[in-house]
Amino acid sequence: MTGPVKGLLFGTAGVPDSSPQTSTLAALGHLRDLGLDALEAEFVHGVKIQSETAHKIRDKAAALGLALSVHAPYYISFNSPEAGTRLQSRDHLLRSARMAREMGARSVVFHAGYYGASSPEQTYAAIKGEVREVLAILRSERNPVTIRMETMGKKSQFGSLDEVLTMCRELDDLAPCLDFSHMFAREGKGNSKVDFLRILRKVEKRFGREALRDIHIHISGIAFNQKGETKHLNLGETSYRFEEWIEALRDVRAEGLVICESPARENDARMLKSLYESYARKS
Hints:
Elements: E1 8-13, H1 24-33, E2 38-42, H2 51-64, E3 67-71, H3 83-103, E4 107-110, H4 120-140, E5 146-150, H5 161-170, E6 174-179, H6 180-187, H7 193-207, H8 209-212, E7 215-219, E8 221-225, E9 228-233, H9 242-251, E10 256-260, H10 265-282
Parallel strand pairs: 1-2, 1-10, 2-3, 3-4, 4-5, 5-6, 6-7, 7-10
Antiparallel strand pairs: 8-9
């Protein structure tokens, strides 16, 4: 697994559309040619990669100096009323973490589930119990990969900023994935440098300075309505104040991974990296 990063590393969620080949292994060299630093491997439709390929990805990423993370399957539903679905959800996250270890990835990001007919309090308790079991198993296996619960963009989904940060505080070995676009869509507000700094300072207050030195972020343009997120967009197609967002990250001296989930994700990732580097030169 790659060691701690210095500064912010920018990459894409999955294989860039401009990659000549669609495999993760083949995309690594293309990402480096684009000047990017990271890739989040998408296991969103299942963990289908084999160990031999995972090891090749690990070795090639290390040789190119690329950081890796993983996104677990979308099928995870830890608040499902069905016991079988909850067990399958555990298995999805466990398999993702085990394969991430073989790939040399730093983190596994996951969506925890929906409220459904449960109250927020009932949902919190149910999800906490399931995630605790997964973390205990990974701890027994001495798996060093960081498990990250993502902040979510739909109001029907478990995953407000406060829910995620509170659970991460209560469960050892659980960390947040801060999806700033999701937070904006969920609340319908929070699109200024002051707002971005408020979020980052809240993370720092809960977990200390070290949390900002190993941060994991998702970003994209986003469309939303009164129910929250509707779809991802390119940053230039929205009113999202990404320049102020970059300034906020610079001001708190954040370090870690920034994964771009825009439709044209490699273009937005390169643009954000260029902005970040230009601000860094001025400081």
